């Protein structure tokens, strides 16, 4: 049976055929190998779709669609994509000499059934080098989608190899990528879609068939991708509306929507058409897509689609934001997405906004909500906002719909905007929904249309996980204030009384700032040795920002730092002058910080840049300011952006925000042996055949002929089902791997025998499941390497002025606790958090004991007894959590000491148990040299006599007993020899019982 990359490829073809695609093998296509368009197919489409257009015009259209402007692939691809999605104008003269014109599209987007969909495998293309693509999808003869597959049953290759191959194709056969819309890289298990020019971190799975449910199983990714994105109607919708190019000063970047954006926007379009005034109530709904998951792109795509809907009759879309820094960032993103949204106008003032909204034309207008303020007139202030437009095709799209959206009191911005545009409809985009006592996002904008929370974004790789590291430097404040910290709310800077002022003063005390600054620099220096990137420091006030800047820059080897804050030249001290900047100077600093190569490595902020600011290379945030709720979630999202080589973002807490962070994340998470034994070959063959039937039963049994006759889709389904069953739980997986390993060892011993040749194909299938399990549990490639440089255990202590770091204190830096992990929630916030700490430690110790027990039975039993005793006392409440944790850490430390001792004694790991056993009886030993010498010979004599299943054979045990007896004779009194021998054999059985599979 052949299980290789063609299995996945053939399954993909079968699924596409099920969706109505026509399969034609590559070598039978009617084409010139140097050309990538199926010319006859495309010409037939133009003739059939536009029968009233003369042949000369058809020929001109064909030429326009197949000839692209630009010296580089990026420009040619952009040029073709515009024509693909927006069509072209063709003009000609009829027989009477009258001018005629028609707008032609290369695809009939309205009627998917009027297009031809061909899937073709092994398509050879001659370019700079000759290459053969695994699968190409041609729509009307245009090669729009390319698939590259790698073998799902080969653990040495993964989806990154498929991605690398696609990048080589761009260089070798560039003519294909003039037309390419989507690339798929798959190893049969994973299946990722992306743009031909994108790095692997921008390729993503498609995890939903209809936008309601997500499919998390990696082994179903290819099926979900094909059934989710490739139904003809969905695919054409995606091609027309969800792909665009951005021009970054001459560098073209191509982007495509991820599945959450596609489904969220599609729902928003439906909701808009249903609920827009006058037919609906004008509340179009809320899209909640977490910070960093591409919200601004979603807004731009939705704007583009709504502007094109004929029933909206050239609508005006008002993009309305909370603050000017958000306004600028979003406006820049819209300008980059010009292909989607068209020209964008920016309201520079209240008068400018009123002028723009009073005109009848459609378009996109950007404004901050405060521009809907009441104006000062010569005879006093306006009593109420004037009506600017009574049009119904006005849609207000609010970004980060928060406090200002709820100003419904007289003269409040929310009321003003509704007076100005009485017939407008409203849609809200947010990454951090608000549902406080007087401000419910859904009441203002309508029900939530689509949700994509932090947890899902991290699972999909749309954002990187954020880890939390406590470096609490306690505040020297009165006890009454520490109790009130839970209640403290962020306040304006001129507050001189109350808790906020007390906390600000305490956080800014000279000694404390020096301590924090020193630790920030040490931490950042260590972090950037292994992970290049930038950092943000968040302080309580502008005053504290300046103090932190002075303390950091006074330290040796401090990198370049800038303070980012608003300034008031009339009020601020002269010493702050160096931190004052004009608008242009601030933009220049922003560009420098975003550039990973620029030496500006760190910025200190109070609230600027904590929302609406993206610097993907920033990977660490040092927090020395009390923050809560959506302010906190927006702030920490500055370090969750995907960036090449960045495994995660890190929040380092100096002030004690862990409780607030837990509360906020909960709210925003919706959701081999030495040599082979000598053995009887006949007996081994018999054992091998028996072992095969045991392992076959573990995969539910199968007949080779039946498997070979299955179509590719059935094979994929069968392997998926078997794999699901084997991965049901750890015990099932470990049981299978253990039995499969026995079978493979027996095969290796007996493969010279003809009787074994008949079962080799069966065994090959079984071994391929092992490869898949290993691939899922220990994925290949740098993209998935776990970053173990980050310490993530939680601590919160107000006992000393020193930096408290529980993780470092207990050397538990291998535990990763992401802020979206349930363990984080329990540890830092919920009652019973101690149980989670204890459970984490118990798990670690238990896992270690499992590994160590066979290697040192006596010691393993002792530690297991201790573990059970501690847990027993804790659960009976006779031991408090702190004492229990201390005891568990002592057990963990004892294991570490064993590892240290093994090295110091010059022993191997499996010799230590025998060393402990003999040294416990050292009073009996008549040994002149070190005990290690005797240990080496005893262990060697045991290993020399091991054979398959020796623990079940008395004669095999006797041979080992005799060999060990020879080594001990004369060194142990005769009366004690049998007792010691018994202990040695018991240890050998525990340690080498599975020989040659373990040990």
UniProtKB/TrEMBL annotation:
Catalytic activity: Endonucleolytic cleavage of DNA to give random double-stranded fragments with terminal 5'-phosphates, ATP is simultaneously hydrolyzed
Any Pfam family: T1RH-like_C
Keywords associated with the record: ATP-binding, DNA-binding, Endonuclease, Hydrolase, Nuclease, Nucleotide-binding, Restriction system
InterPro entries, per database record: Helicase_ATP-bd (IPR014001), HsdR_RecA-like_helicase_dom_2 (IPR055180), P-loop_NTPase (IPR027417), Restrct_endonuc_type1_HsdR_N (IPR007409), Restrct_endonuc_typeI_HsdR (IPR004473), SWI2_SNF2 (IPR040980), T1RH-like_C (IPR021810), Type-I_R_enzyme_R_subunit (IPR051268)
GO molecular function: ATP binding; DNA binding; type I site-specific deoxyribonuclease activity
Keyword Nuclease attached: yes
The EC number(s) this enzyme carries: 3.1.21.3
Gene Ontology biological-process entries: DNA restriction-modification system
Xref: PROSITE patterns: HELICASE_ATP_BIND_1
CDD domains reported in the protein's UniProt record: DEXHc_RE_I_HsdR (cd18030), HsdR_N (cd22332), SF2_C_EcoR124I-like (cd18800)
Gene3D superfamilies named among the record's database cross-references: 3.90.1570.50, P-loop containing nucleotide triphosphate hydrolases (3.40.50.300)
Positions in coiled-coil regions: none
EC category name: hydrolase
Ranges for domain Helicase ATP-binding: 276-451
Functional summary from the UniProt entry: Subunit R is required for both nuclease and ATPase activities, but not for modification.
Similarity comment: Belongs to the HsdR family.
Subunit structure: The type I restriction/modification system is composed of three polypeptides R, M and S.
Protein name: Type I restriction enzyme endonuclease subunit
Organism: Maribacter orientalis
